């Protein structure tokens, strides 16, 4: 009974401190002109004192010459940097709020091993307090993924300024999520040894998955059906290459299994995690398999890896020609440090513009939204951030303005509200 009362009190307290005065921006009206900023296009080019014209939520023009348009809203970005909105390519944002403490606030995990018909987007919570803290750090889009024991369901891309999940939806069901077994024996044992070999058990699961995929592909190719199988129907876009298979894989064995799935079933695979991807870079390039790198600020996977290997992996993939994106999956910091991970990669072999590309244009390519966003180019959605200082530098980066589809969004969040509250209380300047 005490636990129930505590839970109710905790949830009610969340409502009391919710960001009720921070709400989505209205549709863009008129024309917006951003003048005199240093424009980083997201594809390697930098335009000094450039100009961006935004009309009807789209980038109408990018030039090196100032623009004067009657009646336009003009933003002077002198001394500032202008970037494409950053993209978080793999996250449970909007599905996990408090962590493991209060199950009622979380909707990222489903029971069962074959949940192909689960759609993360319908559980996405646009009122999450975490979302606004990401926007303040320049993250404007995210690929929201379900979790689970094995085949977890479909992911969707959302933009981070919306009333409902329908408003937030940017690209629906762009990927199917597969969490591979670890395929490695525990390096340390803190209790009795497992009754079965985890590697053998993992291989059995993968063989069962191959049989499941084979049946689903045969079902998709059948000219007529006597009955509908919802789990097989959900895999049809995967076999038609309208969807990608996001495979959580860190060690080499897992990555090799993912490559085998791609070749065996002729599907588009993306590696998520990819700690050992640097060891298989040439093979990944040969099979045209992209990588979403997690946990750059982390220890290496294996004990005999170099201590700074996670920092160096992006440059190794870049040199091999592997398409990759950087991701922040650190739950304690709630994913807001994406730009600073790219900053670390730029100190270990990538240039600043290459590191930026890994969280903008290349992330958009992997997620299948490159036609709409990821770079500052005419015709694309006006997903843009303006920052004083270098966006990749934790010490100097301050996002001053942000636009999602041309709408100037509110960058306030619970943390900035508390800052203002106690600055007033203690009469601080």
TrEMBL record:
Residues spanning the signal sequence: 1-18
Entry keyword set: Hydrolase, Signal
Highest taxon of the lineage: Bacteria
GO molecular function per UniProt: hydrolase activity, acting on carbon-nitrogen (but not peptide) bonds
This protein's record includes keyword Hydrolase: yes
UniProt key word Hydrolase: yes
Residue span(s) of domain Amidohydrolase-related: 340-394
InterPro entries reported in the protein's UniProt record: Amidohydro-rel (IPR006680), Metal-dep_hydrolase_composite (IPR011059), Metal_Hydrolase (IPR032466), Metallo-dep_Hydrolase (IPR051781)
Protein name according to UniProt: Amidohydrolase
């Amino acid at each position: 009974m005490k636990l129930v009362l505590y839970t109710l009190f905790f949830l009610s307290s969340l409502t009391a401190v919710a960001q009720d005065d921070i709400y989505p921006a209205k549709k863009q009206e008129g024309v917006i002109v951003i003048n005199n900023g240093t424009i980083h296009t997201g594809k390697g080019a930098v335009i000094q004192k450039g100009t961006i014209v935004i009309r009807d939520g789209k980038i109408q023009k990018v030039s090196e010459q100032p623009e004067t348009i009657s009646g336009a809203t003009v933003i002077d970005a002198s001394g500032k940097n202008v970037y494409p909105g950053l993209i978080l390519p793999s996250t449970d944002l909007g599905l996990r709020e408090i962590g493991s403490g209060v199950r009622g606030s979380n909707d990222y995990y489903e029971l069962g091993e074959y949940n192909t018909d689960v759609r993360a987007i319908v559980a996405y919570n646009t009122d999450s307090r975490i979302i606004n803290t990401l926007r303040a750090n320049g993250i404007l889009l995210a690929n929201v993924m379900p979790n689970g024991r094995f085949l977890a369901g479909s992911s969707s891309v959302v933009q981070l300024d919306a009333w409902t999940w329908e408003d937030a939806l940017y690209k629906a069901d762009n990927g199917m999520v597969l969490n591979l077994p670890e395929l490695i024996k525990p390096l340390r044992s803190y209790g009795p040894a497992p009754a079965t070999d985890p590697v053998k058990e993992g291989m059995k699961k993968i063989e069962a998955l191959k049989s499941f995929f084979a049946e689903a592909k045969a079902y998709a190719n059948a000219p007529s059906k006597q009955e509908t199988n919802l789990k097989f129907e959900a895999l049809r876009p995967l076999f038609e290459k309208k969807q990608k298979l996001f495979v959580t894989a860190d060690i080499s064995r897992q990555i090799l299994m993912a490559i085998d799935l791609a070749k065996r079933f002729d599907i588009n695979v993306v590696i998520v995690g990819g700690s050992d991807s640097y060891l298989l870079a040439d093979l990944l390039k040969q099979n045209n398999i992209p990588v979403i790198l997690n946990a750059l600020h982390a220890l290496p996977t294996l004990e005999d890896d170099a201590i700074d290997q996670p920092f160096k992996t992006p440059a190794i993939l870049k040199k091999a020609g592997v398409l990759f994106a950087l991701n922040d999956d650190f739950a304690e910091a709630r994913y807001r440090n994406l730009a600073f991970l790219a900053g670390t990669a730029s100190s270990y072999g990538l240039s600043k513009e290459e590191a930026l590309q890994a969280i903008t244009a290349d992330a958009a390519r992997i997620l299948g939204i490159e036609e709409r966003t990821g770079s500052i180019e005419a015709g694309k959605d006006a997903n843009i951030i303006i920052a004083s200082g270098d966006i990749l530098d934790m010490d100097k980066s301050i996002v001053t303005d942000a636009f999602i589809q041309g709408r100037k969004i509110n960058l306030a969040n619970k943390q900035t509200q508390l800052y203002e509250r106690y600055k007033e209380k203690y009469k601080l300047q």
